[in-house]
Amino acid sequence: MTLFSTHSGYRTLALAVALALPGLAAAQQGIPTAQALSSFAAKAKAQGLNAADVADVLVTNSYFDASIGVTHTYFQQRVNGIAIFNAFGAVHTDQSGKVLFTNQDFVVGAAAKAGSPTPALTAEQAVVATSVALGLPRPVDLRPVIEARMADGIVFNKAGISESDIPVRLMYTRVGDKLVLVWNVSIAQLDQQHHWNARVDAQTGRLVEQNDYVVSEQTTFNQFRQHAENKRHKALAFDQPAAAASVLSPTSTTAANSVTAVAFPLESPNQGARTVVPLPAVGNTYSPYGWQVAQAPAGTFPDTYSFLSTGKYLTRGNNVAAYDDNSSTASGASTANYNSSTTSPDGGPTLNFDFPFTQSTGPRNNLNASTANLFYVNNMMHDVMLAHGFDEVSGNFQFKNATGLGAGADPVRAESQDGSGRNNANFGTPVDGSAPTMQMYLWDNQTNTLTITGTGTGAAGVAGTYPFSTVSFGPTLAKKPLAGKLVLVNDGVSPDGGDHGCKTYTNAAAVSGNIAFIQRGACPQLQLTPKMSNAFATKVKIAQAAGATGVIVFDSLATTNQVSFGGTDTVGIRIPSIFISGADGFKLRAAILSGATLNGSAVTVTGADWDGSFDNGIVSHEYGHGISNRLTGTKFNSSSCLIGNVGTTAAPIYTQQMGEGWSDFFALWMTTKPGDIGSAKRYVGTYVEGQNSTTGTGIRTKPYTTDFSANGNNLTYGAISSTSQYGTGYQESHALGEIWTSVLWDLNWQFIYKYGYNADFYAATGGNNKMLKLVLDACKLQVCNPGFLDGRDAILRADTLTNRAANADIIWNVFARRGMGYSALPGDRVNGTARNTGVKDGFDVPPKAKVLVLSNQNSIVAGSALEAYPNPAQDLLTVRTQLSSSAPVQVAVLDLLGKTVVQSVAVPAAKMQQTGVELNTSRLATGIYVVRVVTTEGTYTTKVTIQH
Question: Which of 66, 526, 795, 848 has the fewest CB atoms below 10 angstroms from its CB?
């Protein structure tokens, strides 16, 4: 489970030094580096930089991308001979050396903004200061293992505080309008939860900012649990075919050279039985050494990585080493030789990785099957992504690179049933040449049911069962049951009747001896951290002081089904508490306010844990973090060019980090089946939530679908900063990712409608394959730490390079539909990173782009030019358009004879672009009608079905 760096991991330092000499770099790479540097400098000056700003740049990486015929050259700005953190640029040239385009985020007037280049702290003192600032133990016997110039980087030993050696480098970083001299220190925590890249002030030792190489799902895989209304009155059972609860595949003695797994495009055992998948033959295009080390010719791998080192035939190969890392085992793969001999399943000399699986027997009895599935999914992700451009030269994950390009020595270390956490997963991506680590956890299999009974007005209408989420503080329900009368609290100060429970209650006597019923939020004085990690617990403490026997908190957004509750026990909680959704909470609140007396009883029933390694969507999601991190801003800036937050843990600055979005897109893409349609609702994480894959709601706030209705997915770019509608809910990295995935998913389906669907995931043809390649190419082309609009522009550039801009109009229209159109505003950019503030929707396309009515195949609600949904409609029909109009838009519904049957008032064009207009269709007979929209740009129509 160690995040480690071998000496090959330090090649980035040597490479950076080599590439700083253009002549040497050109000789090594065979590329026009000097020409690229010259062109980059000229364009940067035209963009406002002065000569000094581009006089000293470090070429961090340069390589020829054969998949699109482009050489990518990446730069880092230096001042006083010292690199500036996250001040990156790039130039992209064709095979003749012609510059195609450049981008940069350099500091203007850097020399005048830079402090003294002489540090007061030594590199050793910087390591100590960093460990103290991060709350880690002080280093023991700290000593350098690689000496170099301070500006190039010094490497220290692990010093008892890090899983890998500690690189330290003198840099500048942006703080406001100044460049502060810092020591950049990387420490991989011993608990494997974080691999910190922190910057401490080189004069004072103060922590300036930090980022994490480990992209963790934190609590958010749990945090966005939702449960459909139709599941409300029954337990959260594992709602799937009966066969899935039995042994899905008998142990075979004849399936040589194969692995039994949940084969793509299936997402999990919910969707079908495991099957026997042949191991690809040696010499195949995407894994020339095969998937398992014993397949490769003798001498391909050193003994320390071959089956000879263990005498066993393990789930280990050139692309991935998969092994068990549960709490009862030592850290699975040795930092020296990836030795997983005691914790990986053995396929024997016939390489038969077929193991039984029965969910009800518990995860430890299914360990071999779990690890084999993890092995399969990682290999598939490797091969499919390599086929579309994530190859050796661009920094993919392999022990040995057949082409000799890229660093190698970095297969994925995939850990099944990892014992360091639960209900979670993560992926750590160090630089090319150092192995990434994927940690897959077990998930709670519990049914949380709140039963409500009562008397009085309105009680009968709310009686029933409701799902809830448990909390991370206070006693468990097993230790202290939660049962009693619900009393809506009143603090006398908070909005909406005082039920937010922000201070001592005015009705404390009524609460005493009962369950305090509290609305979430609205207590700024309790928000002790930006994530309110202690505000929830403080609310419970106030209820406890009032004599409450328990607490039920409900979400403050009545339109959501979210059931989440964070926080830590920092205030001494002695009573149980749970969290329910806003939709349920406001329903119960209304009954109480109408005079009902409600009683509640919360019960948790626990079953055999779900295993994240069987959820192909989540495994693909985690692997996706490695892809986007390695491709954005070059493989030698892994995780530094997709920083989720800047600043410190205590004072984070939230950014437009799209990493979660790419990862969800990759998961959806890999699990798309022939016959799927874009309007269907797709979910993430239904398996680990014990839900049916088609009706469960998974771990995201909305489904992924091209259906733009409120019951589908109507997220737009502006949700990032639309606090009036969403609070701050869409500023967290996973919620941001939902918006980015939504637009990529829409675009994926438009490509499928144009080019067709190809079930061969390795092919170049088919809209799905063309879209995946476009996404990977765009990652290589976009600026370091991009915002959403930077990502949009990179996709447009990738289409220009690969397809001669054949899809530009489609791309513009799809992005405009989600608010990322021509007039959208990107928000603030601080310290080289796009922030969430200042974002504004734009629903238009550029003047020269065509406004399209997007394809509406397979009953999919589509249409950037004109949308009418839901379709079929019943009593209400929403009409929305991206068309510009200098006069108010006229909207009408006509029957098939051309008679107007519904007429709207004139609607401003801006309103039509953002929310559209609702039409009352309750009086229309069942049948087919025509929606007509008249603008100054022309008249547009679309058909809609009314069905009562």
Answer: 848
